[in-house]
Write a structure and sequence with these properties.
By secondary structure, this protein is an alpha+beta fold. It has a domain of 45 residues. It is 43% helix and 11% strand. The chain is built from four helices and two strands. Strands 1-2 form a two-stranded antiparallel sheet. α3 packs across α4. The longest helix has 9 residues. It is globular and about 20 Å long.
């Protein structure tokens, strides 16, 4: 029984309320790249596409980010 509760509660119960706690915002600084940002948050620069895919409403090319942009870090 406890396995069902632990497995079901993590994503289903707090989707609306938990999203703001889990989602981070990174303000792009001069010299940042998506790879550098991925390294900072995930300790894995190769996950830069995770950040790009979460921000396709703001970004059209993963190589073109600008200082001051606010990016969602999933």
């Amino acid at each position: 029984m406890s396995q069902e509760n632990a497995g079901g509660a993590s994503n289903d119960g707090g989707a609306a309320g938990g999203a703001s706690k889990e989602t981070k915002i990174h303000v792009v600084k001069s010299g940042d790249t998506l790879s550098k940002i991925a390294k900072q948050y995930y300790d894995d620069a190769s996950r830069y596409m995770d950040i790009f895919n979460a921000n396709t409403d703001k970004l059209s090319d993963p190589n073109k980010i600008q200082a001051g942009q606010e990016l969602v870090i999933p």
